[in-house]
Amino acid sequence: MPQYPEIRVLYVDDEKDNLFVFQANFQRKFNIITAESPLTALKQLDEERERPVVVISDMRMPKMNGVQFIKKAKSKYDDISFFIMTGFGFNPEIEEAMEANLIDRYFTKPFNVNEIEEVIIDAWKRQAG
Known about the structure:
It comes from Marinoscillum furvescens DSM 4134. By secondary structure, this protein is of the alpha/beta class. About 45% of the residues lie in helices and about 25% in strands.
């Protein structure tokens, strides 16, 4: 059982290895859900009875990148905190997403487990009010 079972995190990445690494690093802390594509993630958000507190999406994925996915998801679920994970660093599209308040923050790969844990817990505390 995770330390914070009430904190549900959806991680979206088209690479199975990345999904595995994320789950392995955070499953003892949070309730982790994964999706291999933005379309799968959108379907999961629509079908999940208990919505995630946080969604973290990879930036570069086929058919729909992370910012495009978050735009769609946030238009329906604005109570979720959204973040981008990127292996390619800060770019103008991520900057625009931050300025438009689509994402709260971005993380770089390889990621810092402690940094992401703190951000997830902070997002949960903000939502809990």
